[in-house]
Amino acid sequence: LSRRVPEPPGEDEIAQLARTANETLDRLERAVARQRQFASDASHELRTPIAGLRANLEDASMHPDDTDLERTITSALRDTDRLESIVTDLLLLARIGTGGSTAQEPIDLAELADAELRRRGSDLAVHTRLASGVVVRGVRMQLVRLLGNLLDNAERYAGGKVEIEVAGLDGHARLTITDDGAGIPVEDRERVFERFTRLDTARSRSAGGTGLGLAIAREIAQAHGGSLRIEDHPRGARFALSLPLA
Ligand code: ADP
Predict the structure, then answer these.
(1) pLDDT at 122 over 80
(2) Which residues contact 169 (CB under 8 A, 6 or more apart)?
(3) Distance from C-alpha of 60 to C-alpha of 75, rounded to nearest angstrom
(4) Interval between CA 220 and ligand 1 midpoint (Å)
(5) Residue 98: is its pLDDT beyond 60?
(6) Which atom of ligand 1 is least distant from the CA of 214?
(7) Residue 112 in contact with residue 238, Cβ under 8 Å?
(8) Is ligand 1 within 6 A of the CB of residue 213?
(9) Atom 2 of ligand 1 has which residue's CA nearest to it?
(10) pLDDT > 80? residue 152
């Protein structure tokens, strides 16, 4: 891939064509490098629970009468859960935006948020300001997942106190989720959307995080023609989702 078209001097059509070809090659090369990095990160993430699982199984097979067998099994099941979450998230990430059988429908954001909060029960102390009639076109399951990932994080990294707001604004639907935690430093606000980025690895893992939640959430927002970013807020973290109105 690293071969380049020789760029003749001047500004004629040939020179421009050569430059465009090289820029395209550069972009492709960067994309391939990102994919390679992703594959390597994913393998690394899968390796940890696999190693745990192996250790537990070896332990159990060497000391089958051990009274700790129950603990060994519990730990092996935890590693299995972890493997399952990572693989599920990886598959989801690969599918978003590829079309397929993902039917779009009109979705009222206030209703969606309300339904999701009800479904989740009362782990979160939620304050809502949901304007009605803010309707977008989207894949319901994906938007539920996006919202769910942000709520999971509010539970994991904050006190669980959350404010959710839905509003229509300049032809866009805007949904914000604000929590009461430590927030996210300005210099990390883009990085946290990258796959497997964690600011606090131990906490994220022990809370069941795969490090893919925000990457998935942003991918879903973009597949819907919108955006997801972190906004300044005096306290805690504020995630703002913007989607085109239906
Ligand atoms: P994870 O599975 O680790 O939660 P995410 O992609 O959802 O992965 O989040 C990436 C990282 O961003 C987290 O590990 C955490 O360090 C940070 N983060 C996400 N949401 C919040 C939040 N509401 N408050 C503070 N930090 C957060």
Answers:
(1) no
(2) none
(3) 11
(4) 17
(5) yes
(6) 6
(7) no
(8) yes
(9) 209
(10) yes
Pocket test for ligand 1, best of 81, 124, 149, 157 (most atoms within 8 A of CB): 157
pLDDT for residue 123 is more than 80: no
- Beta carbons within 10 angstroms of residue 154's beta carbon: 27
CA distance 203 to 31: 31
CA angle in degrees (0–180, nearest 5) for 117-149-165? 50
Q: What is the mean pLDDT of the chain?
A: 91
Give the distance (Å) from ligand 1 centre to CA of residue 214: 7
Identify which of 85, 156, 201, 219 to mutate to test ligand 1's pocket (most ligand atoms within 8 A of the CB). 156
Which backbone phi and psi does 125 adopt, to 5 degrees?
Answer: -95, 105
Tokens describing residue 205: 């893992």
State yes or no: ipTM above 0.95.
yes
Instruction: Report CA(1)–ligand 1 centroid distance (Å).
Output: 35
Asked whether the predicted pLDDT for residue 41 surpasses 60, the reply is yes
Give 73 Cα–ligand 1 centroid separation in angstroms: 29
- Ligand 1 centroid–CA 140 distance in Å is 23
Residue 118 tokens, joined: 């009800």
Find tokens 């894949």 and name the residue: 139
Q: Which residues pair with 75 in a beta bridge?
A: none
23-33: per-residue pLDDT in tens? Answer: 999 999 999 99
Contact 146, 178 (CB under 8 A): no
Q: CA–CA separation, 160 vs 180, rounded Å?
A: 7
Residue 220's pLDDT is what?
A: 96
Q: Ligand 1, closest atom to CA 239?
A: 23
pLDDT at 1 over 60: no
Reference 220, options 118, 117, 148; nearest CA is: 148
